[in-house]
TrEMBL record:
SMART domains from the UniProt entry: FolB (SM00905)
Species whose genome carries this gene: Exophiala mesophila
Name under which the protein is recorded: Dihydroneopterin aldolase/epimerase domain-containing protein
GO molecular function annotation: dihydroneopterin aldolase activity
Single Gene Ontology BP annotation: folic acid biosynthetic process
Dihydroneopterin aldolase/epimerase domain location: 4-114
Lineage: Eukaryota, Fungi, Dikarya, Ascomycota, Pezizomycotina
């Protein structure tokens, strides 16, 4: 299937909570898009005609313009919905949205991966997952007495599914779930006595 890929679109936007759990505070946001149009690009290649391709410049410029005007999104789903509306004419849309400064104790921040599939036989199907990168934690690792004297620093990546189903924004704003996941991992690792590294996973 033909696709058009846009990578590394950078913004400063307020999306949910920032690293200090404050609302409406801008933070760095990096967006990658993989757009599968509703038509193939074979005709454009055969005729060497740019008018028959997907003009990625238009959604890019519109996305940059509107995102910089909106600036504040209650949670990640509102940003995804906005991007989906801007791209508009697609068969499927894959998004990677990175927030590198969203958590104080995650060295590489977090990333959301969203997929919106508008295949005629499936209707509109939406999936969303969260990956937190390099969560910092300290725990005791090992079975020997000298190994259990001091805690050692560990770094974890963890991925969790958030949504699978129809693409709707309903109910309360879903803010702060990345903080909740991060806090839970730190608590499990640091509070409980761990004898072997395998027990952490």
């Amino acid at each position: 299937m033909d696709s058009v890929i846009l990578k590394g679109i950078r913004f400063d936007l307020a999306v949910g909570l920032d690293a200090w759990r404050r609302v409406a505070k801008p933070q760095p946001v990096i967006v990658d898009l993989d757009i599968q149009p509703t038509f193939t690009l074979e005709a454009a290649a055969a005729k060497d005609d740019l008018s028959l391709t997907l003009d990625y410049g238009k959604p890019y410029k519109q996305l940059v313009k509107e995102a910089n005007e909106t600036l504040t999104y209650p949670d990640i789903r509102y940003l995804i919905s906005h991007i989906s509306d801007v791209v508009a004419d697609y068969a499927s849309l894959s998004l990677e949205i990175s927030l590198p400064k969203a958590l104080l104790q995650a060295k590489e921040g977090l990333a959301y991966h969203a997929m919106i599939d508008k295949s005629p036989d499936a209707g509109t199907v939406f999936t969303l997952s969260l990956t937190i990168k390099q969560i910092a934690a300290e725990c005791i690792i090992g079975v020997n007495p000298h190994e259990r004297t001091y805690k050692q620093p560990l770094f974890f990546d963890i991925s969790v599914p958030i949504v699978a189903g129809s693409f709707e924004i309903v109910g309360e704003h879903d803010v702060g779930h990345h903080h909740q996941v991060h806090d839970l991992v730190q608590e499990v690792v640091e509070v409980r006595s761990v004898t072997l590294c395998q027990n952490v996973y």
